[in-house]
């Protein structure tokens, strides 16, 4: 990767990925784009362009203007929002992806876009979900992610575009709070723990989902993109995870740092239904074997770091 063009650069992953890539590859070599600009470090600290990923012409012309050799496509609607606006979600998630893939094909650029544990559904084996298994998700987000994996593999086999992807679990971060996800309870709980010493979870106790701390997610993207192409058996997309927990377990870990922290439940049926359709834990062996994936943060280490950073 030398000249990196990022869409959705002001989102939960994009905003931290942009800064990390600028530190590694040089500020002027990382072009951040999003549907609108804001005063965040990602928007202000280097090249930024307003790009609507559903506008084919603007995306390709902007990527060409910077002679991008890598396209990192992060712009998308997450699961809960997509479920409320399924047609808009299809148009943005699939229209944006197609434009990003066409840009990569035209520019002969390397390509990354994330998939998700949301690409699995109720008929997928729920525990230690394999890399290659049944994928019949029952959410629009999941349909977009499965279609996106197939489309990205198609661009590799048909046009030789070096496409790579990761099936992310819920990502936890303290820089840019996520918007519209199902796993976001695991982010909100830290903010509420510090502010109020208690949290009311919209996901029910006993609901296991895979999770990962943002620093591990960013390293996974860079390690995958820098991996030796000849070693990759899979491409779109690799299972990656760091931990799997249910609300009672993250609450207990927070209580180790904030004694007396209390969790209560007011389950949101819509997001509970999405969570229930996803795996309890996925198997990341393929990522470990093919490009050396490794997560540094477990629940204990992440909780200490999240609370420390948020207290500041
Ligand atoms: C969501 N955070 O909740 C995203 C992610 C696995 C969850 O895809 O939609």
Automatic annotation (TrEMBL):
It comes from the Bacteria. Residues 4-230 form the NAD-dependent epimerase/dehydratase domain. Belongs to the NAD(P)-dependent epimerase/dehydratase family. Gene3D superfamilies: NAD(P)-binding Rossmann-like Domain. This is L-threonine 3-dehydrogenase.
């Amino acid at each position: 990767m030398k000249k990196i063009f990022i869409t959705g650069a002001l989102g939960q992953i994009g905003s931290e990925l942009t800064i990390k890539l600028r530190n590694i590859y040089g500020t002027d070599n990382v072009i951040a784009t999003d549907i609108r600009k804001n005063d965040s470090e990602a928007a202000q600290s280097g090249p930024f362009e307003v790009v609507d990923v559903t506008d084919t012409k603007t995306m390709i012309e902007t990527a060409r203007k910077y002679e991008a050799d890598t396209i990192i496509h992060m712009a998308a609607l997450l699961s809960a929002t997509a479920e409320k606006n399924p047609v808009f979600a299809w148009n943005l998630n699939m229209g944006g992806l197609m434009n990003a893939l066409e840009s990569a094909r035209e520019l002969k650029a390397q390509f990354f876009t994330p998939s998700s544990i949301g690409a699995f559904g109720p008929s997928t084996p729920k525990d230690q979900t394999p890399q290659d298994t049944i994928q019949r998700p029952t959410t629009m987000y999941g349909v977009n992610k499965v279609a996106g994996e197939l489309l990205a593999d198609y661009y590799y086999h048909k046009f030789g575009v070096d496409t790579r992807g990761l099936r992310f679990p819920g990502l936890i971060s303290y820089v840019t709070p996520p918007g519209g996800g199902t796993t976001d309870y695991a982010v909100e709980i830290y903010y509420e723990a510090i502010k109020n010493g208690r949290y009311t979870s919209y996901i029910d106790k006993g609901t296991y989902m895979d999770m990962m701390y943002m620093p591990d997610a960013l390293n996974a993207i860079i390690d995958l993109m820098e991996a030796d192409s000849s070693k990759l058996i899979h491409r779109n997309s690799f299972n990656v995870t760091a931990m799997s927990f249910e609300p009672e377990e993250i609450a207990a870990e927070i209580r180790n740092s904030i004694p007396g922290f209390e969790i209560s439940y007011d389950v949101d049926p819509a997001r509970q239904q999405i969570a229930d359709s996803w795996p309890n834990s996925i198997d990341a062996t393929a990522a470990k074997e093919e490009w050396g994936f490794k997560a540094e943060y477990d629940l204990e280490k992440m909780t200490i770091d999240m609370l420390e950073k948020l207290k500041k």
